[in-house]
Design a protein that fits this description.
Distance between the termini: 19 Å
Strand content: 5-15%
């Protein structure tokens, strides 16, 4: 099925303005260098919709816009404890039946659960409301710690700013790493965080000079992906023991040094495969793997296809 080009976001009463801003920013225009999406906000009916900040949002489109979208996103709203109107649930089910990708993050996942779209599937939501979702919808295979969960035609994400991760993941999945990275750069965001990464961190901001030093080490690592980068070397540059480095790294990033490096290397490999004609052996060398066989093994395990197949799928992606 072709990658999505039309995006419709359902705006419930009491919608979170952060969520509106996220989808509008990601799927809105990013200049002539990037192809844009046909993006629209939709309500149960056109007109003003109350928001969580007290300022009504003017919504121009009704549920009919969901019927033509390739990607349908259910935004979170303050009234998530009450199921959406039957017409909304029918529109979500109909979109899924005709082959649209249906997504939600934060408490927007409650709408997908109420529509039955999460039955028998893995899903996540804001960690604060994970128990409530599990209680109301025991047929959902909840992963409460995940940043986002991709089940193919249904994708769910965690709370608040994890909406950026969800949307960028969808662009990466459908349009390739180069486009996702370009959109992320335009918004001054990290280009990729793995879905299995923890939702919340013990130390989300630097607590002292050691964490500032850690940030310097991570920046250095990004510029030296072609090198082996053992944890001992990273720890030495951070002026920490290996044990202290691993502990502070996980507290600051939500993942391990090995997993972080692997994700970074594969993301860079994706971009090189899309945007250059470099042989796979050279791509492997530039991202720090011993050879094409190692890159292929990691690529198949983490991305589901070998590097050459990925290149064919995204050849010419902007």
């Amino acid at each position: 099925m072709p990658a999505f080009t039309t995006v419709a976001a359902y705006v419930p009463p009491g919608v979170g303005m952060l969520a509106v801003g996220i989808v509008a920013e990601v799927f809105g225009p990013h200049g002539a260098a990037l192809p844009g999406f046909d993006f629209a906000l939709c309500g149960e009916r056109p007109g003003p919709v109350p928001t969580d900040c007290g300022v009504p949002l003017a919504v121009r489109h009704g549920l009919d816009r969901l019927a033509a979208a390739d990607l349908v996103i259910a935004l979170p709203g303050a009234g998530f404890r009450t199921p959406p109107a039957p017409a909304v649930l029918d529109a979500l089910r109909s979109a899924h039946r005709r082959g649209a990708v249906v997504a939600a993050h934060c408490v927007g996942t409650f709408a997908l659960a109420a529509a039955g779209l999460l039955d028998g599937r893995r899903a996540t939501t804001h960690w604060r409301f994970a128990d409530l979702l599990a209680e109301r919808h025991p047929q959902v295979a909840l992963e409460p710690d995940a940043l986002y969960v991709d089940e193919g035609s249904v994708v769910t994400g965690a709370g608040a700013a994890a909406g950026f991760d969800l949307c960028l993941h969808l662009i990466r999945r459908e349009h390739g790493a180069a486009m996702a990275n370009a959109v992320a750069r335009d918004m001054v965001l990290p280009s990729h965080r793995e879905g299995g990464q923890a939702q919340y961190l013990a130390a989300p901001v630097p607590e002292d000079a050691r964490d500032e030093g850690l940030a310097d080490v991570l920046a250095w690592a990004r510029e030296h992906l072609h090198e082996p980068l053992p944890v001992a070397e990273l720890a030495r540059r951070a002026l920490m023991s290996k044990r202290s480095f691993a502990r502070r790294f996980t507290a600051a990033t939500g993942t391990t040094p090995h997993a972080w490096l692997r994700s970074l290397r594969l993301s860079r490999a994706e971009e090189l495969l899309e945007t250059t004609d470099l042989p796979v052996e050279e791509v492997a060398r530039r991202v720090g793997y011993a050879g094409a066989a190692v890159l292929r093994e990691q690529f198949v395990r983490r991305r589901g296809v070998p590097p050459r197949s990925y290149r064919r799928a995204f050849a010419g992606t902007p």
